[in-house]
Write a structure and sequence with these properties.
Belongs to the cutinase family. It comes from Nocardia tenerifensis. This is Cutinase. The chain is an alpha/beta fold. Strand 6 and strand 7 form a beta hairpin.
Length: 328
């Protein structure tokens, strides 16, 4: 009788040990799953409907040119006024959109500043920093930009577009421009007059088919998303270079990057998806590094023209020479 009880006790111990080990493991797995789900996956807008045949005129309320300005991280919020942005009075893109908008009447130009959360949560911060994840922020900004362009194109099919973005906004603007250039965007490629990206995190530094024109001195590195391609931690998906580049818009797309700015000039060997903690920490710090924050004074030519001055003048010239569509 005692022997049977002893055998039963011995058999029950492994089961009890498995339960003691299995329950904490299950809790950890559930916690990690919730972490990923709450941080968000990167979402890309679905292709819109094919446009109808182009009319010969458009409504008198339509501007000839629509400028799309996409601010960088911490330079906007979801509730900002796209026609009078005040979320961040020192937003870099205001140094472009402000001067340009003042030079043209509303019939000629409308400036739309994409309002989005514009945050970059540090996924390894303890305690959590309370910000939106990069995936959620970037997804919202992309969808807001696409929705605005689709709505404008549906209402004003003859309006043309000038696109510019900085930092996270450059990634968003570049992604949408890439889709447009490959015939999958919210407006036809022939309606986009030009694109300028300042500190683009998906910059390849390459030349050739599909690649943008590089303005100023060309730094040796690549965008952080290219250097960290394959890194996927909760809330941060590094998507690498844009497949196909900018397609039909390549020769009309310009990129500006200051040497030492890790967002667009990251050395491949300095950031690695295999060193997740160090790489994520470097990426989060890069968004606030001094080089990245000084593009308003970053000189891009021998005349002392800064990146924002160059972009504003580039936009002005495009708008001045843009078509004047008939109105009805």
């Amino acid at each position: 009788m005692n022997a049977r009880r002893g055998a039963t006790a011995r058999r029950s111990r492994p089961v009890g040990c498995l339960l003691l080990i299995g329950i904490p493991v299950l809790i950890i797995i559930v916690a990690l799953l919730l972490w990923y789900l709450l941080a968000g996956f990167l979402r890309q807008p679905k292709p819109g409907p094919k446009p109808p045949k182009e009319p010969t005129s458009q409504s008198a309320s339509c501007p000839d040119v629509q400028m799309i300005s996409v601010p960088g991280t911490w330079e906007s919020n979801s509730n900002d006024d796209p026609h009078n942005p005040t979320a961040n009075p020192v937003s870099l893109m205001l140094n472009v959109s402000g001067p340009v908008g003042q030079q043209f009447p509303k019939e000629r130009l409308d400036v739309y500043t994409v309002p989005y959360v514009a945050q970059f949560s540090n996924p390894i911060a303890i305690p959590p920093d309370g910000q939106a994840s990069y995936n959620n922020s970037r997804s919202e900004g992309t969808q807001r930009m696409v929705d605005a362009m689709r709505a404008r194109f549906a209402e004003c099919p003859l309006t043309t577009y000038v696109i510019a973005g900085f930092s996270q906004g450059a990634v968003i603007a570049g992604d949408v421009a890439s889709e447009i250039g490959q015939g999958k965007g919210p407006v036809p490629a022939n309606k986009v007059l030009g694109v300028t990206l300042i500190s683009d995190g998906r910059r390849t530094g390459d030349t050739g088919p599909g690649q943008p024109v590089q303005v100023g001195a060309v730094p040796p590195g690549v965008g952080a998303e290219v250097a960290l391609k394959g890194l996927n931690v909760p809330g941060i998906t590094m998507t690498g270079p844009r497949p196909g580049g900018f397609g039909e818009l390549a020769e009309r797309t310009f990129t500006i990057c200051a040497q030492g700015d890790l967002i667009c000039d990251a050395p491949r060997e300095a950031l690695s998806p295999w060193n997740i903690m160090g790489s994520v920490g470097a990426l989060v710090r890069a968004a606030g590094n001094p080089v990245h924050a000084l593009y308003n004074g970053f000189v891009v030519d021998d005349n002392g023209t800064t990146s924002t001055q160059w972009t504003a003048e580039w936009a002005r010239k495009l708008i001045e020479s843009a078509p004047h569509p008939p109105h009805s």
